[in-house]
Amino acid sequence: xxxxxxxxxxxxxxxxxxxxxxxxxxxxxxxxxxxxxxxxxxxxxxxxxxxxxxxxxxxxxxxxxxxxxxxxxxxxxxxxxxxxxxxxxxxxxxxxxxxxxxxxxxxxxxxxxxxxxxxxxxxxxxxxxxxxxxxxxxxxxxxxxxxxxxxxxxxxxxxxxxxxxxxxxxxxxxxxxxxxxxxxxxxxxxxxxxxxxxxxxxxxxxxxxxxxxxxxxxxxxxxxxxxxxxxxxxxxxxxxxxxxxxxxxxxxxxxxxxxxxxxxxxxxxxxxxxxxxxxxxxxxxxxxxxxxxxxxxxxxxxxxxxxxxxxxxxxxxxxxxxxxxxxxxxxxxxxxxxxxxxxxxxxxxxxxxxxxxxxxxxxxxxxxxxxxxxxxxxxxxxxxxxxxxxxxxxxxxxxxxxxxxxxxxxxxxxxxxxxxxxxxxxxxxxxxxxxxxxxxxxxxxxxxxxxxxxxxxxxxxxxxxxxxxxxxxxxxxxxxxxxxxxxxxxxxxxxxxxxxxxxxxxxxxxxxxxxxxxxxxxxxx
Length: 525
What we know:
Layout: H1 2-15, E1 26-27, H2 33-46, E2 54-56, E3 59-61, E4 68-72, E5 79-84, H3 88-105, H4 110-126, H5 128-139, H6 143-163, E6 170-172, E7 180-187, E8 190-194, H7 202-214, E9 217-221, H8 227-239, E10 247-249, H9 254-263, E11 267-273, H10 276-287, E12 292-296, E13 301-305, H11 311-323, E14 333-339, H12 343-355, E15 358-359, H13 375-390, E16 394-397, E17 412-415, H14 422-425, E18 432-438, H15 441-449, E19 456-460, H16 464-473, E20 478-481, E21 500-501, H17 506-510, E22 514-521
Parallel strand pairs: 1-15, 8-9, 8-11, 9-10, 11-12, 13-14, 13-19, 14-18, 17-18, 19-20
Antiparallel strand pairs: 2-3, 4-5, 6-7, 7-22, 12-21, 16-17
Helix pairs in contact: 1-9, 1-10, 2-5, 3-9, 4-6, 4-7, 4-8, 5-6, 5-8, 6-7, 11-12
């Protein structure tokens, strides 16, 4: 399992997972970047939100052996901070802390838990600019997207603060007159939450919000690439009155932390967002202690543009679905299927739109596409591009590293893509849009479903019957019709096939953190 968790760490660099922007050919100037970054860090420090220690039992603690890891700005390579590099011992203590806190937190009334979550939401919103700055610095996404993620992430805390008061049981009509049959919903217990780097706030709140609302306690392991946002959010949770031990954060040695969570009998549930390969390892590791598991895994989203689509709507939606977060989301449009009748017209309009995008440091106001998370991510994009061109694809725009250097990559459009190419078969997780022509609706559905993934899909058409027909035929957990941004706290998020198990967000997301208990009461006549 240690090897599996090493795989998790490497895969997190490439295969983790969502709010809006698109990406760029014109360059946002970087001459004031260092000064801007320094001012941003000072603003974060002044707000008291630059934490570098882990959170265990309500206390900020260093790694027990004193080790640290660097957190870098992917736009510049500058070291932002050195954070505690924790392992199995710290994780075991965090689990013990969560287990002890569970017995008091779960006994609070739903209204009391709701009030604490609502205070947390209020504090996140009050500090949204500092959180967005922190996110842009350590993850690279543009400030506009970072602010969008803070609002999106906070929405889960607000929603589940409300939903905490609506976790209802049931009364079943008895088969015998002197019996009463009851169903209770009770919190599952301690939750281990493993989250990715691409949405360092929202992927935490989407898990922790419902867990705390139900009465569970949590040990969070954020990505070692983006721990600062997680630690700042945890600080605000403490300020909101979430009690010591109810929320713990450990980061650092991924194999050791993962093994400790999987092997503990006190951890009753694992929730994970990341690559399918790592999700499978976590499923296997959870079997020994028979944990509940929910997994939000990799995607290979098709975006189908029919010849009856509104071209402007299709271009705008496809651009948003493809290039947000520099293409580093699990619901990015990974394959753009365009019906032959409008292929040339769509391609021309789409390329023009991509050319208008600005690449640069996320702190620059004009930037709509930042860097990729690290060098390994860029090398993966290059591998996919080389594979495609060697098999007959043609680069219509971009196709190489950006002149800014570091891990910036040009927004890219690739034509003549076929289903034997990596760009069709796997997630590229970068700013590359493959265009694939098709003839008929039947062919489009076949091509869209020709994958083991099943997370998100998009279709563009003016036909209401077609929108229903195709939506029902697509083997995906999420379908956007004439819309490229579909995630919301009030709707269930999750995939089918090898894109995961369970759902996050919405009233359905609460059930992932609950157990059903049946009570039969006799001699009641």
